[in-house]
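hey so i finaly got around to running the thing on DNA-binding transcriptional LysR family regulator from Kitasatospora paracochleata. pasting the sequence first so u can double check i didnt mess up the copy paste, my clipboard has been acting weird all day
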Amino acid sequence: MDVDTRLLRYFAAVCEEGQLTAAADRLYVSQPTLTKQIRRLEEQLGVRLFERSRAGMVPTPAGEELAARVSGLLGGWDGTVRAVRQAANRAGGVLRVGFEGSTINLVGRTTVEDFARRMPGWQVRMRQNNWFDETSGLLSGDIDLALWHAPAAITDRYNCADLGTEDRWAVLAADHRLAGRAELDFAELLDEEFVAIPLEAGHWRDYWLGAEERRGRPARVGAVAHNADEWLAAVACGQGIGFAPQSMSRIAGRPDVVYRPVRGLSPSRVGLYWPLGRPLTPAMAAFVRSCREHIAVQQPAPGPAARPVAAQTAANGAG
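ok and heres what it spat out for the 3d tokens, dont ask me to read them lol
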């Protein structure tokens, strides 16, 4: 039987925290997503792992047996992964960078070539974000860095190398009643139907629906899209409107869609992100420098200070 190690990590976190809410916060996933994954593990094993009650999550006898073994299983696998990657790195390695549908266009050939000069023998492998994983693969180690447009508060969860800020604009079908306006106000969009990303995207779904600015007022969802192309097609077909980085108006233009600035909607913080507690490697630091050298993004607006990259770069000896 093959079991995804991510499911085992989810199981271990629930055992250690004793409740779904705390475990979900620790794992940077939504509680419904965590519940779904625990049920998936139970289905694969054919056993019940927890007794669920108001007091929390209590392992069943089968759950206790798995809990006693899971640490060794994961530790052995993590050690194997590290050894394999170290062997690859000695001969030159691969830096895996996740990107959103729009941010990939920020990284051009000059950025990649600059990185190659800084890290001879290395290459950059770009991977589009998975909307069904809130961490886009950072937590599992599938990627090393994520290039995101994100809320400033996300630095409570991740390290960030700032690249700048960018406004979020409204995206509407060309025949929408507001399409003729040069600028929109957030308040007049509250009752509009939106094209949302999946529930599994957790806080990203909320962010791109403008949840903070809504102040508790729920969004009306007209359609749910599973990738960037599907999302834009749904907007063009009039199934709802949405918010996107301003730069998307330049790189994803089409005659049946318009992009408009929005008053009252906070900008995105553009940066390279990686998990708290995970060291900045020389390759990661080199890519940060290459991006800062060749990616042009609006200068950061005043806000929460980013965790300093320079100190970590020096500590890791990146050149």
